[in-house]
Specification:
This protein is of the alpha/beta class. It has 12 helices and 12 strands. Strand 2, helix 2 and strand 3 form a beta-alpha-beta unit. The structure holds beta-D-ribofuranose and calcium ion (CA). Keywords: Glycosidase, Hydrolase.
């Protein structure tokens, strides 16, 4: 399975990358970075560090440091720490390993070179994808599918995390996300509706630390910071495995229940970043959805299978 991983590492991004590195069926073509959990210099440094640490051969390509409307505002450091990886010690990493060029150009070139074969998993703000689409709208016809971690559609009472209405990856660049949903490619959204079913407890991390070698221990260390955030701010006894679940969808879509319909993102006002789907089964509605392709959102997941598969894979 040919894959581009678009990411803002990020503790749960690191969890997803380690998962990818252990899956022989994945042909990772590139890791593209974006501002989000930290600024672009930090998320790119983290991607280079994780690539080296996890023994990944795919190149890292630096992406957008600003949203489409020119704002460069990372998420608060309370979530992923000042260094984006839970403030563990990170050795100096050489930028010589960075592949020259921009993420958006890499996405365009890779899709065009592999028509119909490449999946993009995007687990940060969708700025790189939107820039690629603006530059070359025809690439939508070249992608196999785009799997997004982002959004919240009200299933299981799940609304936003960065605000009561919006999930962080969408809220970080709502215009970009809206353009991704409007484009004519197959998008699957793995949002808070399902990611909040994937809770990694301290016992679970202890098992990873004991059974998944040095990198299992590294994830356990990073997760301390993340777990404090979830407990203090969200009242959850464990860490939510947002980004790794987008990888699971690629492997095992049969573990998910989905709903089809066009999606719109609210791009201004108090609910900015809110994601709203009009189910295809319903007729009529607001003209905002008219002319948009039906996309899939995940509304339920077999969480036990996911957690078991992740642990076994690592
Ligand atoms: C998403 O926001 C980021 O903090 C995480 O890495 C994840 O991609 C969850 O809302
Ligand atoms: Ca992320």
């Amino acid at each position: 399975m040919k894959l581009i991983f678009d990411t803002d590492p990020g503790i749960d991004d690191a969890m997803a990358l380690l998962y990818l590195s252990k899956l022989p069926e994945i042909d990772l073509l590139g890791i593209t970075t974006v501002v989000g959990n930290a600024d672009i210099a930090t998320t790119t440094r983290n991607a280079l560090f994780l690539r080296q640490q996890f023994g990944i051969s795919a190149p890292v390509i630096r992406g957008a440091g600003e949203t489409l409307d020119g704002v460069s505002k990372p998420e608060p450091v309370i979530v992923h720490g000042v260094n984006g990886l839970g403030d563990i010690d990170i050795p100096a990493v050489s930028e010589d390993d960075l592949q020259p060029g921009t993420a958006s150009q890499f996405i365009i070139d890779t899709l065009r070179a592999n028509p119909g074969e490449v999946t993009i998993i995007a687990v940060g703000r969708m700025t790189n994808l939107a820039l690629a689409l603006r530059q070359d709208p025809a690439i939508a016809g070249f992608a196999k599918q785009v799997i997004i971690m982002g959004g919240a559609f009200g299933y299981a009472g799940r609304s936003g995390n960065i605000t009561p209405a919006a999930e962080a990856n969408i809220h970080g660049d709502p215009v970009a996300a809206d353009e991704i949903f409007a484009a004519n490619w197959k998008v699957v959204v793995v949002g808070l509706d399902v990611t909040h079913d994937i809770i990694l407890t301290s016992d679970y991390f202890a098992t990873l630390a004991a059974e998944a070698g040095a990198n299992g221990e590294l994830l356990a260390q990073m997760s301390d910071h993340y777990a404090r955030f979830y407990l203090d701010i969200m009242g959850l006894a464990g860490v939510v495995g947002h980004d790794l679940l987008a990888v699971t969808y690629l492997l095992r879509p049969d573990w998910f229940e989905t709903r089809e319909g066009p999606i719109v993102v609210v791009t201004e006002g108090i609910t900015v970043g809110q994601t709203i789907q009009m189910p295809s089964s319903r007729k009529g509605g607001h003209p905002s959805w008219a002319g948009r392709p039906a996309q899939l959102i995940c509304i339920a997941v077999q969480a036990d299978e996911v957690l078991q598969h992740y642990r076994q894979t690592l």
